[in-house]
Design brief:
- There is one protein chain.
- This protein is α/β, with parallel strands linked by helices.
- It has one domain: 3-Layer(aba) Sandwich (Rossmann fold).
- It contains nine helices and eleven strands.
- The chain has an eleven-stranded mixed beta sheet with strand order 3-2-1-5-4-6-7-8-9-11-10.
- Strand 4, helix 2 and strand 5 form a beta-alpha-beta unit.
- Helix 4 crosses helix 5 and helix 5 runs parallel beside helix 6.
- It is globular, with a radius of gyration of 19 Å.
Length: 326
């Protein structure tokens, strides 16, 4: 069982009287809580085993599948803070892994992804996720684009709760469209000096962000000397970002097609040759690829910079360099 704390500005769906369910609408407030996910033992790192209809698996089997076993509201932010501190006291690492999901993700999926990351990274601190009101379906891209902007106030309120807690390291991992929320809010707070002091790492995975907006408006603040290390994971085979580029007519930050985005002191990892196409059209490689998961482990747990991680190869045809998987 993997416990994960959550904060969300999703509305509660009251259609199921047996459990707490969140939908894709904006509650205009935050629910603070804790979920527990059962992780099957017979799996490879990167696998998010779920029931498959073609295998006639109509219900999840805990021995084979990820199962969201409970979702509990903790009431107020003070109660949430106290619960986090209680778990932190019993953790072997005084660190926080904070995950922010992207487009087309339900609350339940975000909870299971958080648990998968925590489990596969062998994370020994507290794991948490922020879930903004994605509709969780393919046709709602435009809704999700505006919904993620409307979540900025509420995600920032989570950071207000986290800031005074006794973490010695905080790692923020954002995926896809969730990078817009993370970079916008942390950029604003960095300018005001209100980011959590324990913040050590930003991991921007497959970021669906206009690369020019990032370079002009976000990077100058996040690249300053007193900010956490920022790592960008990109791929040239990410079909979802190719579609986003076609829709917006602007290159996306997570697209590793030449030229690869690079800027000092950011470390860009071109994961093209380590990004499987088996799920989400090559967009979820940060979760699916054992190579990428191993790289994140070395980055977060061992705190190794890119030039010290032996499975990476420097590409230094230009300055600054970027890295690929060997």
């Amino acid at each position: 069982m993997v416990p994960v704390f959550y904060a969300t500005n999703r509305s509660v769906d009251s259609s199921d009287p047996n459990r707490l369910v969140f939908d894709g609408d904006d509650a205009k407030d935050v629910t603070w809580g804790k979920a527990v996910v059962s992780v099957p033992t017979d799996r490879d790192p990167g696998d998010l085993n779920r029931p498959l209809l073609w295998k006639f698996e109509l219900k999840p089997d805990p021995s084979k599948h990820f199962v969201l076993t409970s979702v509990t509201s903790l009431g107020t932010k003070d109660s949430f803070s106290q619960a986090v501190q209680a778990d932190l006291k019993n953790a072997s690492s005084k660190s926080l892994l904070l995950f922010v999901h992207g487009y087309r993700v339900t609350f339940d999926e975000a909870a299971m992804r958080s648990a998968q990351l925590s489990h596969d990274l062998k994370f020994r601190g507290v794991t948490m996720f922020y879930s903004w009101p994605s509709k969780g379906d393919l046709k709602s891209y435009w809704h999700d684009e505006e919904s993620v902007q409307l979540a900025e106030k509420w995600y920032s309120s989570l950071l207000d709760v986290i800031r005074p807690l006794p973490f010695d390291s905080i790692y923020v991992l954002a995926h896809s469209m969730g990078n817009r929320l993370v970079t916008a809010v942390h950029n604003d707070r960095a300018a005001k000096g209100t980011n959590p002091k324990a913040l050590k790492e930003f991991l921007l995975a497959a970021p669906d962000i206009n690369a020019e907006i990032f370079n002009q408006k976000i990077a100058p603040v996040l690249a300053s000397s007193n900010q956490p290390r920022t790592t960008i994971y990109a791929s040239s085979g990410d079909v979802a970002l190719m579609a986003s580029k076609a829709v917006h007519r602007f290159r996306r930050l997570g697209d590793a097609s030449p030229p690869v985005y690079r800027r000092t002191p950011f470390e860009t990892i071109d994961a093209s040759n380590a990004a499987p196409m088996r799920r989400a059209a090559g967009h979820s490689y940060v979760f699916d690829s054992p190579k990428v998961i191993t790289d994140i482990m070395r980055l977060l747990i061992q705190r190794q910079p890119a030039d010290k991680r032996p499975h990476l190869q420097k590409v230094d045809t230009e300055v600054p360099p970027y890295w690929t998987f060997k």
